[in-house]
Amino acid sequence: MYDHSLFMRTVAELGERFLAPHGPDAVLTDLTARLVEIFGLEAAGLTLAEGADPPSAVGFPAGTDALEQVGTEHRAGPCVEALRTGEPFAIADLDAYVGRWPDFCAAARDRGLASALGLPLRLGGESLGALALYAGKRREWSTDDQRTAMVLADVTTAHLIHASRLRRQEQLTEQLQSALESRTVIEQAKGLVAARKDVSVDDAFELIRRHARAHQVTVRAVSDAVVNLGLQV
C-alpha cells in the first residue's frame, strides 16, 4: 500500500522543478527521499547508465548511493537487472539471491534491507538508468506498487532528459560566446598591428599568426596580448 496523496503531490512538485534551476543530482536525491515516504520503505536509490552525467548513483538515506555503486561494480542488484532487461524486477526476499549476488546482498543486509524492486528509466529503446526501492522486511511487490512506482520512474526519465538538453544548450551557448569573443579580440589585434606596422590587415594577421606559431601558442592568446598587454609582433 502506498500514500496516494503524497504520490500525487510528488508528481506535481517534480513537474514544477523541471523549469527551476536545481542541479539534477539534488532533484534525484529528493526524489529517492520522497519514494521512501510514499511506499513506507527503508531506502531508495537510483543508478544512471554508464557515462551518465550527473553522478552515476544517488540515494536516501545517506549511504544508499554506496549500495548502488556496489551493485554497479559487481553487476548485481535490482537496478542492474532493471537496466539490463528494461523491465521491473521485483525481489520479495534478497536472501534468495545471496548465491547469485553475494557482495551486493551482504551490503544490503548491512543496511537492514531485505526486499527490493528495480524499475527501468527508459525512453523508447534507450535505457537511461534505474530506480530501486528497498523494504526492511520481506515484501511482495504488488502490481499496484509497480505501476505507481513506474509513473515516478517515467517522471524521473523526463527530468533527466530535460536536464541533459539544458546542459547541452548551455554548452553550445558558451562555445558560441567564446568563439565570438575570440573573433572580436583577433580583429582588434589585427587593426592595432596594421596601424603600428603600417601594413594591411591581412599582413597584420599573418604577423600575428607567425608569432603564435613561433611561440607555440594560439592566435587568440597572441591577439589578447597585443590588445591588452601591448605585445609587439
User: Which architecture of the largest domain per CATH?
Assistant: 2-Layer Sandwich
Evaluate the radius of gyration: 27 Å
* Biggest β-sheet: strands ordered side by side in the sheet: 2-1-5-4-3
> Which band does the percent of strand residues land in?
5-15%
Number of helices: 8
Average pLDDT confidence is 82
Low-confidence stretches: none
Q: Give the oligomeric state.
A: single chain
- Count of domains: 2
How would you sum up the global shape? elongated
Share of helix, binned: 55-70%
Main sheet makeup: 5 strands, antiparallel
CATH topology of the largest domain: Beta-Lactamase
Q: Helix- and strand-based class?
A: alpha+beta
Provide the CATH top-level class of the largest domain. Alpha Beta
Let me know the CATH homologous superfamily of the largest domain.
GAF domain
Order of helices and strands: HHEEHHEHEEHHH
Description of the molecule:
- The protein contains 8 helices and 5 strands.
- It has 233 residues and is an alpha+beta fold.
- Helices cover 59% and strands 14% of the residues.
- It has 2 domains: 167 residues, Beta-Lactamase; 51 residues, Orthogonal Bundle (Arc Repressor Mutant, subunit A).
- Strand 4 and strand 5 form a beta hairpin.
- Strands 2-1-5-4-3 form a 5-stranded antiparallel β-sheet, with helices on both faces.
- Helix 1 runs parallel beside helix 6.
- The chain is elongated, with a radius of gyration of 27 Å.
